[in-house]
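Q: What structure does this chain adopt?
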Amino acid sequence: MDEYGIDHLVDALIDREGGFVDHPADRGGPTRYGVTEIVARAHGYAGAMRDLPREEAAAIYRRLYWLRPRFDQVAQRAPRVAAELFDTGANMGPAVAATFLQRALTALNRGGKDFADLTPDGRIGPATIAALDRFLDVRGKRGGETVLLRALEALQGERYLCLAEKRPANEAFLYGWLANRIGTVGPQS
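A:
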């Protein structure tokens, strides 16, 4: 499987997230493999979080963080962008990642010359996919994807800094977020 296939992305994410964690500064509470207890319960898992099976975590990531937000449709066009959206979505929520994509595409549409502005609603639908297709047609697949990745990572990094500034307890996570979340989807040139 290639490095941007969902199985590889899920395995890499789970490896990066590690096992059971219950950090006192984390508002998400107990997690295993990066899956919060609230998300696990909503997905139907009833056991102790420290016992959440890896396969259950993988199923949650595939369904809630890949298929439901339609990152799989992005992957058909721009696999590196989809990988970035998946990782960002797993950490910040899929709607935040989708909003980043919509904001970046709108900012890169040359004042509406290439395609209409998008409403940053956090939902990838036909308008977002059409804008992505048009952007890649105009800017070139490889170059356009690289620039779009840089825009997404800039938005992600800025959000991490804001989270730490607004809530000092988040400073405990800032270094790791920047070290392990920015630039993790592979070569960008």
